[in-house]
Each structure stands twice: as C-alpha cells, then as structure tokens.
Amino acid sequence: MTIPIAGTSAWVLMVIGWYIIRFPFERRAKRKKVAATRRGGAETLRMLVSFSGLGLVPGLYAATGFPALADYQPSIVQFVLGAAVGVLSLTLFRLTHKALGKMWSVSLDLREKHKLITTGIYAKVRHPMYSAFWSLALAQALLLPNWIAGLAGLVGFGTLFFLRVGPEEEMMEAAFGEEYRQYCTRTARIIPGIY
Q1: What is d(CA 50, CA 153) in angstroms, rounded to the nearest whole number?
Q2: What is the CA radius of gyration of the chain?
Q3: Transmembrane stretches, by residue range (predicted)?
Q4: Which of 133, 116, 131, 138 has the alpha carbon at shortest distance from 184?
Q5: Neighbours of 30 (CB within 10 A)
C-alpha cells in the first residue's frame, strides 16, 4: 500500500469514527426541546462552508482523486503525524460529547434547562469541540496528499470558527451571566494555556 492510499484510507476511517461518535448524540438531541437558538441564514452558510471543507471536497478527492493536479508525494512522517492527530481529534470529539451529554447541539442552541458544563474536558478549555475540529482539519491536511483537498478543512472549518465563536460566547454570556464570565477567566478557548 502506498503512503497516499494509506493516508486517504486513514482519513476515511477517521470520518467514519467521527460519525459513529456523533450519531447517538444527534438522535438524542432531536428529542430535547430547544429553548434559545441563533440559527439562521448566517449560521447555515457557516455550516455549509465548514462541511464543504471537511466533507465534500475531501470526500470527492477520496472517491475520485479529483483534483489530481494538486497531488504531491507525502512522506511517511507526514502520514504518521496525520494518523496521530486523527486519533487525538477522535479522542477530543468523544470526550466533548461525553461531557456535554444532553446539552449537546450541532448548532448555536440552548436546550430547555440548559446547564453550563465546566467539568471533564470543559475544565481545561471552553470549546473543546472546536479543538477537536481543528485537529480533524489538521489531520486531513496531513493525511490527504493534495493541496486543495488536504487544506480545504483548515479553510472551511477556520471560516466557521472565526465567524461563530464570538456569537456563541455572547449567547452563553447572555444565558449564564457572571457564571460564564468567571468560567472564561479560568479557561482558554481551544488550547489550554495558549488560546
């Protein structure tokens, strides 16, 4: 098996693992009522851009090899790093879902009787789900040996992150007030002790 095939296969397995982790939470979330939301046209556009970068573009590449003109020959070190970052992203993703439980939502929603989660992985960072997605996008860049498909996740998710994190934090502050402000003073956004 060549390194490009191994990398693409690892990316596919990572996406499958991602879906397996998320599926039961998504099913449960549909049964819980939403008390407040910031969904709308802007959020739909952000989600579409992110999905294009993390799903559509790399999925097209994995299935067809398009756009082959942007291919390059990866190293074994790049593949190993990509696989390790992929495992990290799945671990963060699982820990985040486990900590959130019934409070989980795919979008900017607050559930009925929503509680501010500050335990588990949330004791270290405010947005570990975003940390998981950044890790996924980095793993994609390392595993898919194509300048377009590989980097599409960083661009797509980066767009969602930088346009969404502010409104999300405003929504949490409006809902939880001083409790959320205090939580912000003791946690970083996505990388403990850094940012």
Answers
A1: 7
A2: 17
A3: 6-25, 45-64, 76-95, 143-163
A4: 116
A5: 6
Beta bridge partners of 111: 34
Structural domain boundaries of the chain? 3-186
Full 3-state SS string of 5-22: HHHHHHHHHHHHHHHHHH
Start-to-end C-alpha separation, the chain: 39
Pinpoint the alpha helices (H) of 30-75.
41-51, 57-64
H/E run at residue 110: strand 109-111
Three-state DSSP class for residue 79: helix
Q: Check: CB of residue 149 under 8 Å from CB of residue 72.
A: no
Q: Are 39 and 108 in contact (CB under 8 A)?
A: yes
Q: Name the packing angle between helices 76-100 and 3-29 (round to 10°).
A: 10
Q: Which amino acid is at 70?
A: A
What digits encode the pLDDT tens for the residues 12-53?
Answer: 999 999 999 999 988 877 777 887 787 889 999 999 999 999
The tens digit of pLDDT for each residue in 165-180 reads 999 999 999 999 999 9
pTM for this predicted structure: 0.94
Report how far Cα 7 is from the mean position of its chain's Cα atoms. Answer: 19
34 has which bridge partners?
111
Amino acid 107: pLDDT: 82
